[in-house]
Fold:
Amino acid sequence: VSFDSYQNSSAPPGLWQVTTLTISLKTSTWAAIPAALKLTITEAIGREFSTSISFNPAASPTSSASSPTLSGATTTSSGEPLSDIVSWKFTGVSEGQIISGWSDIEPLNAYSFTASGSIGVCITGIGAERSCNSNYAVNTSCYENGPQVITATASGKYGAGLESDWEESRRYNVSIVNTSPSLDSVKATNTKPSWKNSTTSGSITLNSQFGCNYSITLKSSSSKAKTLTGSLAADSTKVSFSGLTPKTKYIAVASVISKNGTQKKTFTFTTPAIPAKPRPTSSGGSSGGSSSGSSYPKVIGWQLDRAMSASSAFYYKQYSSCYRFSGFENGGFGVLDKSNWAVVDQSGSLLYVCKRK
Structure:
């Protein structure tokens, strides 16, 4: 249908006038189920407006669909009809697209232009998140199933000297379709504690699909329940825990939650015992003997890696008189390669070291 033939001949070309368009469909042979048609209006400059009109063939012949409100592809612009100035195409999402789970659009690779100058694209959409020239990622499982709108807004400069600004937005009607969440696997990992710790820590890894948030409750027979909550990541989600009683069996209930339901798994794990404080050791003969008045082996002159193996109580610091040898080493500062350091002095379990070369 060409609207030009319905326009007032005295009006400038391209200026729309009020026009009534009647569409008649013979539906007597159609199945009595809800149906829809899509109406698209295209301007000469290339912009499009579209809408879907829903109706039921089984309804009364005298009933009519309500007048549609156009909300389709191109909606707003500033300045002149921009498709005549800059030709651009957005490929990150298409009209009527069905999306689920994590939606990840990279604006830098999702559009093309035939223009020069400063050009950029921003995306606004589900949940009002906005991203400009970087990944636009949204977890659609956090929203109700149904229609949503994603808007791509391009902007830049045009003209011989790129002196004029332009901006144009295109809206895309999409639909969120997600199923109930799944919790495919869950695993607890303990962190090896030090003798200096009084409690234990670790992490729980969740692998799930179509989930938005998580909730993990930890409970033992001798402690109050502890609950951890947060948002799920796009892939696996690692949740850290701390402050648990050592050498204790815990019952954990992990839940994955979305707008379409909740999935739970119950599992158990046991926290490790706290190791005993290491006792100072002494050795003689080939180890260099003990220093006077100390139970620690004397290791002055030893290579640092060998010295550290002589006693688990040893620790070290750089000797102040040899800082000129202790600069950048293997990509970082400080003692990185113990075989390249030597013990130059000792005070009990404290070793003073210098870089060998």
User: Anything to note?
Assistant: The radius of gyration is 35 Å.
